[in-house]
Write a structure and sequence with these properties.
Blueprint (H helix, E strand, L loop, with lengths): L1 E11 L7 E7 L16 E8 L5 E11 L7 H41 L41 H5 L7
Antiparallel strand pairs: 1-4, 2-3
Length: about 170
C-alpha cells in the first residue's frame, strides 16, 4: 500500500502584457452618395479594445493511493522466511557470545578463587565472581601451626608407666 501526497502548480503568462490595444475606426463615409468612399483608408479615431490577455495560475493539492497484490506469493514468502532465518541466526550468535562470556567468567573466577585471589567483599567488582562456587577442591592454603614444647619434667620412673607400642 502506497500513500503519496502531492502539490502541483502551473503558471502561464504572455510578455509583454498588454491589457488593451487601439483598434482603428476607418472613414466609411460617402458624403456625395456616389457609392464610393470619399476617404478610403483614412482613420477617424482609435477605440481602446480589451485584449483579454491575462496571467493564469493554478495549484493542485491531493494524494495518490496505490494498492497492489502480488499474483505469486512465492517470492514474498521466501523473503519472510529468509528474514526469520536471519533473525534466528543473529539471536543464536548473540546467545553463543553470551555463553562464551559466562564460561570465561566462570573459569577465570574459579581459578582465581583456587589461588586465593578475590575482590574485597563489598567493593564494586566483588559481584563479578559472587555467584561462582569452587567445589571438590582438596587444596589447603599453606599455613603454619605452632606446636607447644612438651618436654617431660618428671623422672624416668614416672615415664616408665607409659610405653609406646607395647601393651
Amino acid at each position: 500500500m502506497n500513500f503519496t501526497p502531492y502539490v502541483t502548480g502551473t503558471a502561464s503568462a504572455q510578455k509583454p502584457y498588454e491589457p488593451y490595444y487601439n483598434d482603428p475606426v476607418y472613414d466609411m463615409r460617402d458624403l456625395d452618395e456616389d457609392g464610393t468612399l470619399d476617404n478610403p483608408g483614412s482613420i477617424l479615431y482609435h477605440v481602446p479594445t480589451r485584449t483579454g490577455q491575462k496571467d493564469n495560475y493554478s495549484i493542485g493539492v491531493g494524494f495518490s493511493a496505490t494498492w497492489s497484490k502480488p499474483l505469486d506469493k512465492t517470492l514474498q514468502d521466501q523473503c519472510k522466511k529468509a528474514a526469520a532465518t536471519q533473525i534466528a541466526l543473529q539471536e543464536q550468535l548473540t546467545a553463543n557470545k553470551r555463553l562464551d562470556f559466562e564460561i570465561a567468567r566462570l573459569k577465570n573466577c574459579g581459578e582465581l578463587m583456587k589461588s586465593g585471589i578475590q575482590f574485597k567483599p563489598g567493593t564494586r567488582y566483588a559481584t563479578i565472581c559472587a555467584d561462582v562456587m569452587v567445589q571438590g577442591v582438596s587444596y589447603i592454603k599453606p599455613h603454619v601451626h605452632s606446636i607447644p614444647n612438651t618436654e617431660p619434667t618428671g623422672t624416668a620412673e614416672d615415664l616408665g608407666s607409659f610405653s609406646i607400642g607395647k601393651p
